[in-house]
Design goal:
The strands form two sheets. A seven-stranded parallel beta sheet has the order 7-6-5-10-8-11-9, with helices on both faces. The protein is elongated. The chain is built from nine helices and eleven strands. The chain has 251 residues and is α/β, with parallel strands linked by helices.
């Protein structure tokens, strides 16, 4: 597996160097002072981890893993508050994308690709429960994962509160919305929230949205793939914003 480090001390050094770690796999039942130091560092930095049998670690690497293997993201993540501040200082209307528990790496890659094409200023995902950025993600994104700023946060709710305090409207994509996507104003600073593939946006996140919008579905199937739905929402923002610029009227 590429983008992987192994060994307790090597992973500790990676954490100290603030490397973009997707997930750390720890051997069940392992002890020792160095192992406990690693556990403490994982908790302190809010990193995703899981305890697995040694057989799992042996499958992940043929090297001497010492009971710990970490998967490293191929891209560097951006600090959330710095990202928002930088975007707000630029010309143009800010457009952010929040992903609530989107867990499929290829869906994630397709979403990143669409976001880059639509001029999204930043993608925000939770540290736990979200799809990692793997080689497959980067490949599916057609390289967009290296172009769109991506930030990992401890809790999406806190990120939403921060965005709202910065003047960013939160628009949730949900079939539970009363309004159609085409009645929502995207021609203002806003952040679109997309939910998990199987259950959509969580109730706690949905309750914080300034607007809830749904897509018209004329067939018998009740939902779209999340990456497709995301594309529709983002391109509606593009359409509205292009219409507002002189000389860029759409036909």
């Amino acid at each position: 597996m590429s983008n992987q480090i192994y060994g307790i001390r090597a992973i500790l050094e990676a954490i100290e160097a603030e490397q973009p770690i997707n997930k750390i796999f720890l051997q069940k039942g392992l002890g020792g002072e160095l192992f406990k130091e690693l556990e403490t560092a994982i908790r302190k930095n809010g990193l995703s981890s899981s305890y697995v049998p040694v057989e799992k670690l042996n499958r992940l690497t043929k090297n001497n893993h010492q009971g710990a293997v970490a998967n490293i993201s191929p891209v560097q993540f951006h600090h959330f508050e710095d990202l928002v501040e930088n975007v707000m200082e630029k010309d143009g209307i800010p457009l952010f994308l929040l992903l609530d528990q989107v867990s499929d790496v290829r869906n994630f890659g397709a979403i990143i690709r669409t976001a880059e094409c639509c001029g999204v200023d930043g993608i925000i995902v939770p540290k736990n429960g979200a799809a990692p950025i793997t080689d497959d993600t980067a490949k599916t994104s057609a390289g967009a994962a290296f172009r769109v700023p991506i930030s990992k946060v401890d809790h999406l709710k806190d990120a939403i509160f921060y965005l709202q305090s910065s003047g960013i409207a939160i628009i949730a994509a949900t079939e539970k919305g009363e309004n159609s996507i085409y009645s929502v104003d995207f021609n203002k600073p806003c952040a679109v929230v997309m939910g998990a593939e199987d259950k959509g946006i969580s109730a706690s996140i949905l309750s914080l949205a300034d607007h809830k919008a749904k897509l018209p579905l004329l067939g018998d199937i009740g939902s779209l793939n999340v990456s497709v739905a995301c594309g529709v929402f983002l391109y509606e923002a593009v359409r509205q914003r292009m219409q507002s610029y002189s000389g860029l009227k759409l036909p």
